[in-house]
Design a protein that fits this description.
This protein is mainly alpha-helical. The longest helix has 31 residues. It is elongated and about 95 Å long. The chain starts with 15 loop residues before the first helix and ends with a helix.
């Protein structure tokens, strides 16, 4: 067995816990986090601004004007045209539609489909559960 003075200084002897700690550091850094094991210099020269960075109003897409919302809501009042318009607005291929309008169209289309399904189920239940009611109404 070699004595300590026989081992060159360039060869680092590591123990199992040191290897585990090194792998933990590498995994932490490889995930994109800052290495917490490196000492940080908080002097005035390297002081970083830790305030959160928010998008400025100019970086957001422009808001939809009231006239356009009124037009959208008017189209929603017309039967069958509203479904066709919602399907067209909710598609990703339509580049003239803003993300706000696209999300509105998707939510409204989903809500309309759920509502139509509930009405259809209620109609079937009424048809089979209360046939005398339909005869009295003349249907």
């Amino acid at each position: 067995m070699a004595k300590k003075k026989d081992i060159p200084k360039s060869v680092k002897q590591t123990t199992a816990p040191q290897i585990v700690e090194h792998r933990r550091k590498q995994a932490y850094v490889s995930r994109g986090y800052a290495d917490p094991y490196v000492p940080t210099d908080y002097s005035n020269k390297t002081k970083k601004d830790f305030t959160p960075k928010f998008k400025m109003e100019s970086e957001h897409e422009p808001s939809i004007p009231t006239k356009k919302w009124l037009g959208i809501l008017f189209i929603q009042l017309i039967p069958l045209v509203n479904l066709i318009a919602l399907i067209a607005w909710s598609s990703k291929k339509n580049s003239r539609v803003s993300n706000t309008q696209r999300n509105y169209a998707r939510a409204t289309l989903l809500f309309a489909l759920i509502t139509y399904a509930i009405v259809a189920v209620a109609a079937v239940v009424i048809f089979f559960a209360f046939p005398s009611l339909l005869v009295d109404l003349g249907l």
